[in-house]
User: What shape does this take?
Amino acid sequence: MEIIAAITAGILVSIGVWLLLDRNLVRVVLGVVVIGNAINIAVLTGGRFNGTTAPFTSAAGVPELASNPLPQALVLTAIVIGFALFVFALAVLKRTWELHGTTATDRVTEVAEDDAPDLAPPALATPSAPADREGRR
Amino acid sequence: MSTAPPHLLLVAPLLVPLATAILCLLAGNRPRLVQSLSVGGAALLAAVGLALVHLADRDGILVSQMSGWAAPYGISLVVDRLSAAMVAITGIIAGATVIYALAHDTDPARGKDFHLLVHGLLVGVCGAFVTGDVFNLYVWFEVLLVGSFALIVLGGGKRRLAGTVVYLFLNLLATLLFLLAAGLVYGAAGTLNMAGLAQQFAAGTAPPGVQAALVLMLVAFSIKAALFPVFGWLPASYHVAWTPVSALFAGLLTKVGVYALIRMVTLLWPEAGLIHDVLLWVACATMLIGVLGAAAQTEVRRILSFHIVSQVGYMVLGLALATPLALAGAVFYLIHHIVVKANLFFIGGIAARLTGSERLPAMGGLYAHSPWLALLFAIPALSLAGIPPLSGFWAKFVLVRASLDAGVWMAAAVALVTGIFTLLSMSKIWNEAFLKAHPAGAAAIRSSRGQGPAMWAAAGLAAITIMIGIGAGPVMDYASAAAAQLSDPRQYIRAVLGVEGG
Amino acid sequence: MLLTLAFIVVAMLFAPSLSRALDARAGWLLALAPLAGFVWMLTQLPVVSSGGVVLESYAWVPALDVALSFRLDGLSLLFGLLVTGIGTLIVLYAGSYLSDHHHLGRFYAYLLGFMAAMLGLVLADDLIALFVFWELTSVMSFLLISFQHENAVSRRAALQALLITGGGGLALLAGLILLGTAADSWQFSTLTAEAVEGHVLYPAILVLVLLGCFTKSAQVPFHLWLPNAMAAPTPVSAYLHSATMVKAGVYLLARLNPVMGGSAGWGTTLIVFGAATALVGAVLALRQTDLKRILAYTTVTVLGQLTMLIGTNTAYGLQAFVIYILAHSLYKGALFMAVGSIDHATGTRELTRLGGLIRFMPLTGAAVALAAFSNAGLPPFFGFIAKEFKYAGLIELGPLGWITTVVMIVTNALLLTAAGLIFIRSFLGRQGAYPRHPHEVSVFMWLGPMTLAIGGFLLGTFNNVAEVWLVNSAVQAVARGPVDVHLYLWGGITPAVIASLLTISLGILAYVKRHAMRRWMTRWHTIWQISGDLLWDRLLKRVFIFAGQIADRFQHGSLRQHIALLALASSVFALLGVALAGGITAWPPVTSPISWAASAGCILAITGAGAAAAMRDRIALVTATGACGLGVALFFLAINAPDVAITQIMVETLTVIFLALVLRKLPPLQVVGSRNSKRRRLHMVVSVLFGLAFTAVLLTSIAGPLPGDIAAWYLANSLPGGHGANVVNVILVDFRAFDTLGEILVVALASIAAANMLGGRSARKDGNNGNPEFGSVLLRQGIKPLAGVLILVSVALLWRGHNLPGGGFIGGLVAASALVILALGYGVPTARKLLRIHPPRLIGVGLALAAGAGLIGLLGQQPFLSSAWIAPGGLALGSPLLFDVGVFLTVLGSMVHMLFRLLEKEA
Assistant: This one.
């Protein structure tokens, strides 16, 4: 089973990288999700699939062939983290579309290499009032 | 040690910023309160760091087993001289950054959750410095990463968002690699505890497969540390963020990667070997490519960003040489560079605010207009270029000497050539932004009103640079002692596992 | 000695404020600092001249064997006297010269700073301390050259000087490190010739040290920075670029001569480079018409001659070296200052416009006359003795000496011509055409040149005084053994005297024929065109072009190129790692039986991902992603990881909802992959390679059996130690709760960051925003009860999670989905109202609860997060449960926070 899982993860990660290299930011975001899935499989594979029951114990004792609980705990949290990061990436995607009017990756990212803009002159009127406001939440 | 370790103090590097972040979150819309909380939290963190430095120097390696479960079942929190120093310097930089952020600025990022996110990021940074567990290290990397995502995009705008896209996806890929590597380290070695791994390596019982996972992990660290050839994300993104944000990043983030590299490599491969050879080449390439990239830039922060890359090369060089002297040099460089680099970003930011731009051709006139700023710039700039008796000189001196001692002439030559190019870049900024007259006339230079906090933050860091330089004796003693600890993993193993290693 | 330095440094620190307070008179006060140093040095003359040394040492960086140690011997004393003595006069001079400059205070500070550095350099006994001062002189020189900073020429000259001397400085650093390592000593006084010259590193040391010295002392081909440095104000040129700093290089050569000068390579190199430098300087000097540049090039000549003299290593040669240092510093300092005065008084330094100045500036004229005589090497001036000894020293050398003697004669003759130009051309003859009406300068401006010029005259006449007190001990310090020193003006008819006569006649001839000579020289215009400056500019340009090419490789601004490089590099290194681990050792690896359900999950996941990679339609994309996630969930379930599977399903649901909400606002995707087929192939290769590397690393890592007992330990201790039957949950909230704390922080921060970016809550007031997503009333009927049930389920999951599948993460996700349904059905305002609490506050409370649960352990002197349990009525309640509540709230708050923002902006 480990081999199948490893190959699956490898294929998934290949597809993920392929998506990351796409020219559309939407697919890049999906690429992150796919790679995340692949890595979760890989981490679980690291714990081996020897178990035949889920890792639950009871007062009666520890089951003979419980699956390895540690990678499961690691992956569980990795899934939630991955989701949080995915939503952040989605937010970036959405903002990019709103600001740049395109989701073509290179056309977006090349803007970062533009010359630095001039700084706005300091506001003369009420210098402290609006700028000192902590952001709304 | 017979007495119980100071559990609270050991976990304080995380708890202080965490508590500060939570309080900032709950304080919500009260900017004054948030600012005071933030400055207070950073000051407390610096105090905690200094206390840890004191304790680590006196008592050796301090360990606290989280949740009360002994290693390798629980998570060990380990503070040795290096990590204590890193926490202290983190606190200092954090303090300088949040104070700097109080200065008047027209950037839309000002306000907007900045303080909350900075402290969130600090939890990750400090966590990475004190943890003794591979997966836990991943978690703290993730914390600092997500904190940095939030900070880099703060304020928005097309250009900043574009930089964020590059930063986001390349770092996501790096962190995913790290996750994979951490999982596989467990899969191969059966433990996540660094001391446990070190023990296996020292005893020669480590399964061969774990090396593949560890190399993958080193690759992930190298991306974070911005080593050649995977540093591309750094100069593509650092220059777009708000000034205090890029200063904080420049000071701390790559250094977490370097720290992790130092930690793992010294623990697992204390003797020079193949890994070190590869690192040596990588370090030399990083130094040269970074400094050449910097020479081509015409904006303050772009120049400085490429220099981060170049200087990370110096630290890794120290690691690659693997002699106690070289390690001491790497530790010294790490400490010195955090202070100096953050400060240069600070001062570059003030200079940009005064001249209205950070493009060198559009700057000028500051030498005549604000001599204090010129002095403040000169100190870290000369230090970065390795001019004695400032801190950077000692760092460079030790590394060159260590390279020559080890007979690695090429590395010494590269380090020295990099030094002269650094000097070139710094004098370029100096000539253009300070000496040259402002292209739009002296009247175009803006008032420095409201820049007080920023100037004080920069002055404080400059004072530290001078102190490290003039008082290099005690600092170098500490760095040497830290290096001695690093080059003998048995101490670490004994402290964490309570058994003799090897 | 440290006190002397400290005194000057203090003067430097107070110079700007003093200058502001006292105006021009500040100079008098500031000059006291170097004067005090001068006087102190004078008092040390008896000790040093009788062969003694003064030592002082302070620990600096003991870990590196670096000490701040000073040593005053004959050589140091000679230089120390020059630095402080001329320094005093220069400070006074500068006060008048720059009296109307608004940055005079800054100028004083730099000048005094330089003085301290230079003094430290000549006094230092520690190799590294010397280097510290060495570099400081370069920095101060940079500041002083660029003092007229708004002038681009000054800036360029300053940078050039800094890069050349700085670059040489780095070579010197390497050389000094090797020297210290080879001799196993970091003090000049304890270096021994046997240890250094016999060492295998000697050639490297030689090259590196000479590089440092040659750049600093402007030897060919590094000479070009020195004439350009004349962009500095004249006091600076007088002080740094003729009397002191440029002599640092020859100082170090002299200092190292006793321990490094034994090899043939040393002498030959010095003589060859010195001779070349002397010739180049002399020839170039005659081409100039600017007085200051003439002086600059003659300085180059003198530096070359000094280098040659050290290279001779004969008694006469070394005596000549010491005398010449002294003589040159005196007359060149005087001449520079006088030229500054002329410039100040007349507004020009152009030779062609000068003449007849003696009537207006008699005192300056007298000083120039005296100095020029010394410069020309005419008796009875000190310069004459220097010249005599030079010849004597070179002639002693044999064939090589004869050649160099010729060089020496020619260059000295040209020096004499230059001296003639300066005095005769400017002060005698017809009155020139001046921009300003010439006048004599103020007392401090003629005092300096006069003092130095008279000094040169007196030392020559009373040469036995100089010999007894100064020259003898200095020569002993430079020589490789005791040397008998005896100075004289007249030693009979020797070859040296004949050479002198030859020099003087040649010099006079050259002066008379100067116009013809210059015309002749202009014919070789091609030679003058390949000047060092031009080459320098080209070199710098090349460097910048090269740097630009390097930078472009990494600054393309293309995300895809960045990712491709990153992926490629990672794959290569990962495969190297696999090789390091010895490859996939056991094949096939130890495997467990194939699970068909898990395999089906794998196939579903791959199909989904593949579909996502190939399809354009947005709905299809969402569906494909969902299929991939579901496949993974199936896989998790099949390998007995129910908690993970439930989490995956919950997350997948939310993923699809979020994705659909965002994607529907975006345009349809135009193209799949890259248009460019070559790039497409490259991307294909990168992806496949990455996948292969990934699989290889994975299989290598799990090749052996899983070592260690951690899994078994967790299973065994979950219930007794953690009071929970669900081992995964116990790991999350107890064994490895520290991880979980970090993870919920990630979730919290990500949600705040995403929410920040998704926009403001203020949009809520926009009426349109309140509209629910689903208009159907029928659908809405079912939503509220469903949401209520989900909330209850989530709490149940949280509660039972410690023993059965569930827990804070899963509970939080379920509760969040309840609110998602509510927000979709009734609109965000309603959902917010039902939630009651502002989501960020929920996050804060959640984090605080989790961290607070950890603090309970600390109260009992236990580590952070140590669990504490109570069992009221048999119900086990512990801090891990509280921790899990924190997780629940954080996850819930974060998800809801993001979703509300997304929906609010959406509508």
